[in-house]
Design brief:
This protein is an alpha/beta fold. The protein has 17 helices and 32 strands. It folds into 3 domains: 67 residues, no CATH class; 256 residues, Phosphoenolpyruvate Carboxykinase, domain 1, CATH 3.40.449; 193 residues, Phosphoenolpyruvate Carboxykinase, domain 3 (Alpha-Beta Complex). Strands 1-2-7-8-9-11-10-5-6 form a 9-stranded mixed beta sheet, with helices on both faces. Strands 15-13-14-24-28-25 form a 6-stranded mixed beta sheet. A hairpin with a 6-residue loop joins strand 20 and strand 21. The structure holds adenosine-5'-diphosphate, phosphoenolpyruvate, calcium ion (CA) and manganese (II) ion.
Length: 667
């Protein structure tokens, strides 16, 4: 994409010669410099009054002004006392000091607002911290920790570029960062405190993502994180919201050590208005992100230097030993997978969009199957790309931003995501030209999992507020690297539940070398890494909601066709988009269908814009025996995976449970 920066194609310089407009073209050498004499003979420079400053410091002080106050007087209709700005800052610092308090040394750290680099800022708004007996004083109590509270993207850019190695501004204005040694999530290091309550409530044991730890170990790690954060000169604090459903909003606080993490969460969570921030109060949930600092391997339960620890009773999460920002967003998603079902609300690992006529579609799928790509659709409004809730009121996005994969990103295929990569967007682990700062999205030198995190309003047709009515279509995405699943199948309710509980995708190994066999992955509810309850709990809720609201289920293969990985090829994104278009418009529902053998899937015989022969995968394989063998192999893997679920009842409906058990492959 190196070039003249002509992004929208409307205008182009024919040659590079007209750049110095009005000074005559400069085909040979530099343009002649002309003074800007106007025809009336007055020199432009002389017409401007001189700068209103006597000294350079004074000049600099003129540059910045204080943000306008937001809620001037409280209680205009009531008798509430006005709280001064000073008092408000004091309260905020006390709240943050309480968050950061050591559990053994009683009081929180000495906090002061603002950047420590700005020496002129005297420690005003000190959080009052009384340490009376001298024997109780620790070194950390004698120092100040500066709090950078809900900074703006511009301020966070400056912090990142000044203090964090590997931070750069790309050609389109995004902030390129490095997440360090970890460039993806670490599910083996995600632990959940098992106590009397969670013991009964949560899903434990085989297949569960919840690796247990005890309360004491959590506190050891929490203290480690808090001590690390307090030892720094400054910490970033974000106070934000989750869930666009106003009745079920959760207040979250993220304490972190890096501007990268603060900007990432600024983008990913819902951003409070200045007024909402003033009234924020105590958070419902707090993350302590001490990702640069490892956990201690001598600590009980620790198996590596990384630990992501969730304590539902304390409503806290501690991150040690990984700077991958996705841990924060997906960690909070786990919390929602616990809190929301308690309120009869279904949490969904899905993208979501809405058509002009108000038809909502959900896109379930594991990482890399197309939730973000397919929910970001220029002809529809984006509700969200990854995490949603389905309540009696309809759907709501949990987040305030999107987190798109960038590997091989192209302007042609994914224009809206491409254009969202601009000022404010965090670009993780990408490679760029050191001079032009143009990003090379094909370069996987750092990792294959390159990512862009941007506020949802960077997508031009985002639906704000990010809520919608009950879904009409539930699309299950599977990237089948075996190449035997049809590009699209219509599912009955039992099949939808079977495939939802199975949560199949098959990916090819991260490295290209020597990949012979696609790796089948089964991840219950298309997000086993994030669910907290048994999969059948979520499945029962989904079945009930789909039945009640008459939603249709679809299985879409965004993976291989014409052979498995290595011999076939990935289904072209434009074809998948046509398939999705036909689902949205309702035309696919009216198509003629035939049933496949083994999986018993209903496949359409024709879709506008898609070659008919690819709709039945058997047609695309030249070696029919290889197709059949591969089909049976995959069917066997499905069957084996489902064995663990055969003893469970799904909801109260015996009949549905039986139908679900019968909805898998038959051979
Ligand atoms: N037929 C297809 N359908 C969907 N995505 C495809 C297809 N072919 C290639 N892709 C690529 O696969 C990736 C899907 O990733 P993404 O949408 O970010 O997944 P998720 O949000 O589910 O983790 C994108 O990089 C996209 O360009
Ligand atoms: C952030 C993630 O989500 P996804 O790949 O589904 O976008 C992840 O799994 O780490
Ligand atoms: Ca995604
Ligand atoms: Mn996701």
């Amino acid at each position: 994409m190196a070039g003249n920066g002509n992004v929208n194609g409307e205008f182009s310089f024919g040659t590079t010669t007209t750049r110095i407009a009005g000074t005559g073209t400069a085909r040979n050498g530099l343009a002649k410099i002309q003074t800007n004499k106007k025809t009336n003979g007055i020199c432009h420079d002389d017409s401007t009054p001189p700068v209103k400053a006597q000294t350079i410091d004074e000049l600099h002080s003129l540059q910045k002004k204080k943000s306008a106050p937001t809620t001037p007087i409280k209680g205009t209709q009531g008798s509430f006392a006005t709280i001064s700005e000073e008092e408000l800052h004091k309260q905020q610092l006390q709240s943050i000091s309480a968050s950061l308090a050591s559990l053994t040394r009683e009081t929180g750290p000495n906090l002061v607002k603002g950047d420590p680099a700005r020496k002129s800022e005297t420690p005003k708004h000190v959080s009052h911290h009384h340490f009376t007996p001298a024997f109780n004083v620790s070194d950390s109590a004698l120092k100040f920790t500066h709090v950078l509270y809900n900074l703006s993207p511009a301020e966070l850019y400056e912090q990142a570029i000044k203090y964090e190695k590997g931070s750069f501004i790309t050609a389109t204005g995004a902030l390129a960062t490095l997440s360090g040694a970890k460039t993806g999530r670490a599910p083996r290091d995600k632990r959940v405190v098992r106590d009397e309550t969670t013991e009964d409530e949560l899903w434990w044991g085989k297949g569960s993502p919840n690796i247990e730890m005890d309360e004491h170990t959590f506190l050891v790690n929490r203290e480690r994180a808090v001590d690390y954060l307090n030892s720094l000169d400054k910490v970033f604090v974000n106070d934000q919201f989750l869930n666009w459903d106003p009745e079920n909003t959760i207040k979250v606080r993220i304490v972190s050590a890096r501007a990268y993490h603060s900007l990432f969460m600024h983008n990913m969570c819902i951003r409070p208005t200045p007024e909402e921030l003033e009234n924020f109060g105590t958070p419902d949930f707090t993350i302590y992100n001490a990702g640069q600092f490892p956990c201690n391997r001598y600590t009980h339960y620790m198996t590596s230097s990384t630990s992501i620890d969730l304590n539902l009773a304390r409503r806290e999460m501690v991150i040690l030993g990984t700077q991958y920002a996705g841990e924060m967003k997906k960690g909070l998603f786990s919390v929602m997978h616990y809190l929301m079902p308690k309120r009869q609300i279904l949490s969904l690992h899905s993208g979501c969009n809405i058509g002009k006529d108000g038809d909502v579609a959900l896109f379930f799928g594991l990482s890399g199957t197309g939730k973000t790509t397919l929910s970001t659709d220029h002809n529809r409004y984006l509700i969200g790309d990854d995490e949603h809730c389905w309540s009696d009121n309809g759907v709501s996005n949990i987040e305030g931003g999107c987190y798109a994969k960038c590997v091989d990103l192209s302007r042609e295929k994914e224009p809206d995501i491409w254009n969202a990569i601009k000022f404010g967007t965090v670009l993780e682990n990408v490679v760029f030209d050191e001079h032009t700062r143009e990003v090379d999205y094909t370069d996987k030198s750092v990792t294959e999992n390159t990512r862009a995190s941007y506020p949802i309003e960077y997508i031009p047709n985002a639906k704000i507020p990010c809520v919608g009515p009950h879904p009409k279509n539930v699309i299950l995405l599977a990237c089948d690297a075996f190449g035997v699943l049809p590009p699209v199948s219509k599912l009955n309710l039992a099949q939808t539940m079977y495939h939802f509980i199975s949560g199949y995708t098959a990916l090819v190994a991260g490295t290209e070398e020597g990949v012979k066999e696609p790796q089948a992955t089964f991840s219950a509810c298309f997000g086993a890494a994030f669910i907290m309850l048994h999969p059948t709990k979520y499945a029962a809720m989904l079945a009930e909601k789909m039945q009640k609201h008459g939603a249709t289920g679809w299985l879409v293969n965004t993976g291989w066709s014409g052979g498995r990985y290595g011999s076939g090829s990935r289904i072209k994104l434009p074809y998948t988009r046509k398939i999705i278009d036909a689902i949205h418009s309702g035309s696919l529902l009216k198509a003629n269908f035939k049933k496949t053998s083994v999986f018993g899937l209903e496949i359409p015989t024709e879709i506008e814009g898609v070659p008919s022969e690819i709709l039945d995968p058997v047609n695309t394989w030249s070696d029919k025996k290889a197709y059949n063998d591969t089909l049976l192999k995959l069917a066997g893997l499905f069957k084996k995976n489902f064995e663990t679920f055969t003893s469970y009842k799904i909801g109260k409906d015996n009949k549905l449970t039986e139908e679900i058990l019968a909805a898998g492959p038959n051979f």
